[in-house]
Amino acid sequence: MISLRQVTKSFSNGDEKVIALNNVSLDIKENEFVAIMGTSGSGKSTLMNVLGCLDTPTQGDYLLNTQNISQLNDDTLSSIRNRYIGFIFQTFHLLPKLDVIDNITLPLRYTDISQSEIQTRADALIERVGLSHRKHHKPYEMSGGQRQRVAIARALINQPSVILADEPTGNLDSKTSEEIMKLLTELHQQGQTIVMVTHEAEIAQYAQRVIRMKDGQIIEDTQTCSAV
Ligand SMILES: Nc1ncnc2c1ncn2[C@@H]1O[C@H](COP(=O)(O)OP(=O)(O)OP(=O)(O)O)[C@@H](O)[C@H]1O
Ligand SMILES: [Mg+2]
Predict the structure, then answer these.
(1) 159 domain residue, yes or no
(2) DSSP 47
(3) Which helix (H) or strand (E) holds 23?
(4) How far apart are CA 72 and CA 31, in angstroms?
(5) Global pTM value
(6) 20 CA to middle of ligand 1, Å?
(7) N or C: which end of the chain has fewer CB within 10 A?
(8) CATH code where residue 145 lies
């Protein structure tokens, strides 16, 4: 489903050139749950940005659902992103003025999906993440864990091929982190493909495969028995 072939991503800061991804090849199959680990600056977020079509490789190819997206323009890239990718961020990225329903349905606002279909999906997802009693709350009226549940529902609303989560529990206490990881695990068990960045071993344990990065390269790629 996801295939990176000898992908390099470099940035130039004035005279200095930073190689954030150095010749990375990686295949991720449908319904895998992958954790990406590595020290700060090792290229994890850059990798996620490429996977999420937020950025394109400097060299190499990225195939998503067999389509080569390495050289597409921004408009095509963003429509592929809206169609196939769901994002979850460390700091939730909810819109403060919108209530739960409006935050969740935002990614479908400018699509041709009917209002009734949007409503049906949103109701099912709000139920799914356990927020039926919070439909009309604003983000500031909710706890961190509840906000991340809203973000997870929003990530799922376009029925994405893959969920990309960059440090999804980075702003949560350990009990709330566990709840969020249990929810992601359930989604995975129901068939969702998930790629998650974390630097906590306890969080990585929920995944079935752990990829370790260093200096823009994959230095370890291990299948694990999921702890839960
Ligand atoms: N837009 C950019 N412009 C210039 N350099 C960048 C850019 N994005 C990333 N880099 C550089 O690329 C390297 C990899 O950065 P990246 O953000 O992918 O690391 P990371 O593994 O996500 O780190 P962290 O754990 O701190 O989030 C770093 O040296 C970083 O400074
Ligand atoms: Mg990062």
Answers:
(1) yes
(2) H
(3) strand 16-28
(4) 26
(5) 0.95
(6) 6
(7) C
(8) 3.40.50.300
